[in-house]
Amino acid sequence: MKLIVFILLLFFSLSACSKQDSHSPVPVERTLADQGMSLISFSGVWNQGSVQLQFALSGDLSKITDVKIFSGSNSNQLCLIGELTVNKLQASAGFSYTDPAPKGSPTYYMIGIEDNQGHVTYVNNILSVSKPSGLGK
């Protein structure tokens, strides 16, 4: 019986991120402010079963190589769902990303910024996007 309980707990802890997610849950350690960058805006809209995210960054963006998008059904368990490759940026830049499979209502989103040395810095803001009432499942 103990073995069955252990296996079930192990299964649930490992299945926190769905199979479409490409990485394990991410701990938040470094922030944009630590790297001389800031988040100007971060918004999301539920649209026909997907979520459209818009965000803008400012500061020293010259060393950014990728923008990583994380999501989850709660704000404590966020998993990588997509990446945007970045060319050389100026002092500010706007981005958009569509999540075709939100994890529920609400779905939580966070942004990570990867520099040219492979270090990921996380935005302090976690965005919650809910389905508008009256849309059903």
CATH class: Mainly Beta
Strand content: 35-45%
Count structural domains: 1
Poorly predicted tracts of residues: 8-15, 19-24
Roughly how many Å apart are the termini? 37 Å
Q: CATH superfamily, please?
A: Immunoglobulins
Number of strands: 8
Radius of gyration: 17 Å
Quick summary:
The protein is mainly β and 137 residues long.
What would you say this structure looks like, in words?
- Strands 3, 4, 6, 7 and 8 form a five-stranded antiparallel sheet that branches. A three-stranded antiparallel sheet has the order 1-2-5, with no helix packed on it.
- The chain has one domain: Immunoglobulins (Immunoglobulin-like), CATH 2.60.40.
- The chain has one helix and eight strands.
- The N and C termini lie far apart (37 Å).
- About 10% of the residues have low confidence.
- Strand 1 and strand 2 form a beta hairpin.
- With 137 residues, the chain is mainly beta.
- Helix content is 9%, strand content 44%.
- It is globular.
